Amino acid sequence: MLMSFSRCRKFIHLYRNTRHKSRNYLVFPKIRLFFVLCFTIQRNAQQHETMTRKNIHILLTLLTSLLYLTTASAQRTMSGQNSLRVSLLYNGLSVGAEAFYEPYTLTGFWQAGVQGNLYKAGLSTAHSLDYVHALAQGGYQFRLAGTRSRSLNLYAGGGALVGVEILDAWRRLPYYLDLGKSRYAFIYGLYGTAMLEWFVSPHWAVILQAGAPVTFGSAIGALHWNVGIGLKWNL
Fold this sequence. Notes:
By secondary structure, the protein is an alpha+beta fold. The protein has two domains: 69 residues; 157 residues, Porin (Beta Barrel), CATH 2.40.160.20. It contains two helices and eight strands; from the N terminus they run H-H-E-E-E-E-E-E-E-E. A hairpin with a 4-residue loop joins strand 1 and strand 2. The radius of gyration is 36 Å and the shape is elongated.
């Protein structure tokens, strides 16, 4: 439906010659209208070609940048990369914290660190008894899913724990209350954890996690749970 540039130029040339030969070029309204139409078509085609070139240039730039970022970002979790993580925990009764050293492998990462949890239990005397778990933990997290750039990853795994349980760690109970058990108890067990890792920069990641430690020898039962949020720093 569009007319070629060569035909437009031909009619434009004809219009101009006719205009110079005639004292009143308005006697040729059809030729003048056709000239305006040809000029409009030619200008729109040139603008479309310019916009097309700009869009292609922008697309190529974005693809190149994405390829560069993908290659660089994948190094965040490459095998041998070391990292440190600190998380704040909530266990339904109180809060806790943990710190881990986590070196990456091809399929996930190892973890070794410490965790502290505070639990509370009510007594028949209307007092509240504090239970503190101070634990050393070690295990492995498997990568279940992740983006190609490794900026978002999902892990699940677990390991072993060992530590001590301290009753009334801050000695808030009255001196005349007898708990009937030692203030210190050796505890051990296993833990399972699921983690969502989101890298917000080449070195820093936000961690969302949920865990289920099972501790044997505890005065408040074996099965516990916690959820948390943390920060990871790639060394």
